[in-house]
Amino acid sequence: MLDNCKTEKGNDEFEALKSPIKYIVQVDSNRNFSSPIKVDTTSFTQDTFILSEQQYFWRVRVYDLAGNQGIFSNIDSFGVDITAPTIPILTAPENGLFTNTQTVNFKWLGSLDNLSGTKFYTLQYSTSSAFINTITLDSISDTTATSLSLGDSMYFWRVRAKDNAGNFSDWSQTRSFRIYTQIPSIPVLITPQNNIVMNNSNVNFVWYRSTSPIIYFYKLQYARNALFTNPDSVIRYDTLLTLTLTDSVFYWRVRSIDSASNISNWSAVWSFEIDTRTPNIPSLISPTNGIWLLNNLTIFNWSQVNSDKERSKKQQAIKQEFSDLTSAVRYILQVDTNRNFINPISDTTGLTYDTLILNQSRYFWRIRAFDLAGNQGTFSGYDSFGIDYTAPTIPNLIAPVNNVTFTDSFVQFYWNRSLDNVSGVVNYRIQIALNLNFTFPIDLTFNDTTLLITLDDTTYFWRVKAIDRANNESNWSVVKTFRVLTTDIQEQNSNELTSLSFNIYPNPSRAIILIKLSLPYLSAVRLQIYDKTGKIIKTLLNESKQKGSYFINWNCRDDADKKVSPGIYFYTLEACGKIIRQKVILLK
């Protein structure tokens, strides 16, 4: 094809004849020359025509001045095309593409040229948008080309077409792409912190942004096991994700993917636990029921709550996967001198016991359980105890005064009440003996400061101590002495017992009952107490006794050492072949 409208016969010369001749040139768009477009006669071997763009056929014949005409030459063809091909349209790589592939496949849509047709394409790519230091791939016959291996950089590229007439299209629109092969940095996890336990089902996942300049998105995975079997995956374009999850132990990790499809390694694997269940209420074990303790080092005990036990069992049974756990339980102990716990002493422990050093006082205490997720149970009901390690004051003896002589066998003992500002005095212990060593004394414990008993004629020594609710005992009081000498001294001195005697004092009684038994000779003795239904509640004696007098006390407790209820009871004495029954009344 020609690139202009002139046809130079000098370009297609034909041999001139020696005699004067002329030439007839025919040009037609039809090779049959049925209607030639151009016909010209010339004496030269070249001619010029102005033609429009299309395909043409041409031929030449010669004639001389004598009118002889030669035969037309062979037909040849040419075309006229002065229009450039259409501009190629770039298709791949897409504009602004990031890729980690260093060998790039370029593609574009072919140019259109309806005349001479597209001959080839020229591709240029450069790291400069002005195409300085350009790499040119020329004479590309297809609409695709492959680059050499390229390094990491931003690249610009363009394509133009050339037709068979030598017309070049304009350069295509310039596109860019970036090759980046650096692996992104591994994300660093922030929250939820590793091994944390939480009671909120809405979990905020946060991590530090990767340092890669072309990060595109992050992939977060979470699973119920550290091997990430069947994990859930979420794609995020920022570094924050909020999910609502159920109670369980979860493992999570994050990796970053940049715009060039470079993928970082997974982050460290962290775990966390969601536990929204409230721990059960512990049961108080000790100290309870208002008990008084003798030591200021107080040990508290309570039951382990169920959720803690269940966790322990499941942790032993499941090594990799914890699908339904509750977090470890802790306990809050509160101790106060006020049952409303206005200003309590508080302590926290992971055990089911605790130890506190407390001052002497009466206390109330309670327990509540909470887990590491922050779930708090309800406080238990309170119980009480007291601490008292100080003995009561020593009783002051009033009567009998020292060295007094009684002419009556009934002796009344009196002493001042002891002081105890903590637990309070609950009982007094009196000992009455025949010697200062108090060998085989009459030994009675009761809650009053007076005692009336009958005693045989002789010299006696007596002393008293106080006992408080914590069982602290005072020191013994001073020892005093007295003598019983009735008017019938001679008869008493004969020490002759001629009959069985049995006396009870006091009757009615509140706490201690004193029984005096006199035997005229050796005898089997059985002394029992019955309630009003006839049931034996206490056996005081069931053995043989020599002739003489005996003092027996009953502390108003049954054979199981339980305090009997106030009411009417009956003594039955079997001795010396006789049976004696006597009624006694216990008061509140």
Structural write-up:
- The structure is a single chain.
- By secondary structure, this protein is mainly beta.
- It is built from two helices and 43 strands.
CATH topology of the largest domain: Immunoglobulin-like
Percentage of residues in strands: over 45%
Indicate the percent of residues in helices: under 10%
- The CA-CA distance between the termini, in Å, is 139 Å
Radius of gyration: 62 Å
Task: Name its key features.
single chain; 588 residues; mainly beta; Immunoglobulin-like
Brief characterization of the structure:
By secondary structure, the chain is mainly β. It has two helices and 43 strands.
Topology:
Blueprint lengths: L20 E8 L9 E5 L12 E10 L11 E4 L9 E4 L4 E3 L3 E7 L8 E9 L8 E6 L3 E6 L3 E11 L11 E5 L9 E3 L4 E3 L3 E6 L7 E9 L8 E5 L3 E5 L3 E11 L11 E5 L9 E3 L4 E3 L3 E6 L3 H12 L11 E8 L8 E5 L3 E5 L3 E11 L11 E5 L9 E3 L4 E3 L3 E6 L9 E9 L8 E5 L3 E5 L3 E11 L11 E5 L4 H6 L6 E5 L7 E7 L3 E9 L4 E10 L2 E7 L12 E9 L2 E9 L2
